[in-house]
Amino acid sequence: MSTDAESGFDPAVAAELILRLPQARALGLKITGFGDGCAEIHMPFAAQLVGDPETGVIHGGAVSTLMDTCGGASVMAHRQVEGHTATISLRIDYLRAATPGQGITARAECHHVTRSVAFVRAVALDEDTERPVAMATGTFTVPQLRGDTPEDTA
Fold it and tell me: Mean pLDDT per 10-residue run, the chain (154 residues)?
């Protein structure tokens, strides 16, 4: 994934996305890649995110929010899409518990766009990048295609 101006990376857009979402701020999410229909967001480990104090594993709800946010960001990073998006559906398969004490990074790709729906694949990884923590597929709204007028996409 490219993160330069040529590929559409705009640090202001990335920062604004996180600032608009209270849950993203609460989780400490940071966009580390954004462009060409792809997004990468990191969630640092924090004790308040632990779901089970005995194991020290981050709660699945935090992972879900990370993957949902990353999926939406990948849609906004797609060169055909203009505007903000909303989640239509999100399916997450939890493959294993995240390693206690480690942050989690989500990577999402918006792989197909229609006039009204964007399709996304995502993966969540801790430091063991060979064994995903979770994988997801989702659909998101397409508010407007670049070059279209709002009346064209109704």
Answer: 49 73 93 93 96 93 97 94 94 97 98 97 98 98 80 45
Calculate the CA 35 to chain-centre distance: 12
pLDDT confidence of residue 16: 77
| Cα–Cα dist 34/84, whole Å | 14
pTM for this one? 0.87
| CA proximity to 89, closest of 143, 135, 138, 134 | 138
Nearest one of 119, 116, 60 to 92, comparing CA atoms: 60
Question: 98, 100, 90: which is closest to 124 by C-alpha?
Answer: 98
For residue 68, the model assigns a pLDDT of: 97
**Residue 19: partners with Cβ closer than 8 Å, 6 or more residues away:** 25
Tokens of residue 149, six digits? 């007028």
Tokens representing 108 are 């999402």
> Which pair of structure tokens corresponds to residue 150?
């709002």
Q: % helix / strand / coil in the chain, to the nearest 5?
A: 30, 35, 35
Nearest to 19 by CA among 7, 4, 33, 31: 31
Res 138: pLDDT? 98
